[in-house]
Amino acid sequence: MPPTLCRRQPYAIRRNHLRSFLKPIAPPAVSSAPAENRFDALLAWYFVLVWGSGYLASKTGMQYAAPFTFLSLRYIFGVLCLIPWLIVSRPRWPADKRQFFHICVGGLLMHAVNLSGSHYAQYLGMSAGITALILATQPLLTAVFAHRMMGERLALSQWFGVALGLAGVMLVVWHKIDIAAITAGSLAAVGISLAAITSGTLYQRVFCRTADLRSAALIQFGMSLLVLVPLAWGIEGFVVRWSLPLVFSIVFLVIFASILAVNALHTLMRRGHATKVTSLFFLTPIVAVLLEWVMFNVVPTWQSAAGIAITCAGVALVSGRRTT
User: Fold this and answer.
1) Which residues of the chain have pLDDT under 50?
2) Which among 117, 116, 124 is positioned nearest to 229, based on CA atoms?
3) Are 140 and 166 in contact (CB under 8 A)?
4) Torsion angle defined by CA atoms of residues 218, 222, 223 and 224, in that order, rounded to the nearest 10 degrees
5) Which of 47, 62, 169, 254 has the most CB atoms around its CB within 10 Å?
6) Nearest Cα to Cα of residue 102 among 246, 221, 200
């Protein structure tokens, strides 16, 4: 047989094989799509609700322990929760030192640096409104970096949606903004938090795509403790005023936020577009405002109501169209 025919035959066989099996394969793929979309929607709403609630839980916890101490307690409890779960589930561990290194870097950015910055900004006097507003610019930064560094192209309507979402968040939290409470230290702290969560989210999407989220969580909690405990001890003296609200806030933030919500975020990042997923952060200040209304009878203003509608429209524009 001539060499040219030998080179063409495998392609012909693959093409015929594909044609013969195309019809039987197509229906399951179509039928499974709605279920996957529903699961993604549940993950997205869970993340939004828990992450938005985290503002109130953190504010409550820091009334009884300074930021580094509070975060140290949070991750000590997190490690204690994860160890039995990992013994039972037996997850896959990092395959080599390189993957272990990437997991550590992503965890330090997402947990230690990000939360230390946002918590310390509020501890230094920055209002929750300004903190939420600055951190709500993350989807815009993510869109820019993903566009330039990861080759993800957004439609014009999606860029408009990002800007619209940010404008809506400004309206939602505008009545909470106290410009006089801004200091150079608090502004630097929240800026560090913004850079860390943006870079950490993208870093884990690029370098930790195949990591098991269960074992990765334990590694990241442990690395965060190595950084936070010395800071809590050396700067704050590790002073804790134990109370039920402190315990409840730690339990909520560890189980529902640091473990389940962060894993939901990374799952969505692996399954979708970076800007679409991080546009969910626009909705978290809205959840905080609504919870304040329910729990503390802080009635939203008409500006907040308009901001909620505008933000939802912006998220819909970002999430409702395919990207290339």
Assistant:
1) 1-31, 323-324
2) 116
3) yes
4) 100
5) 169
6) 200
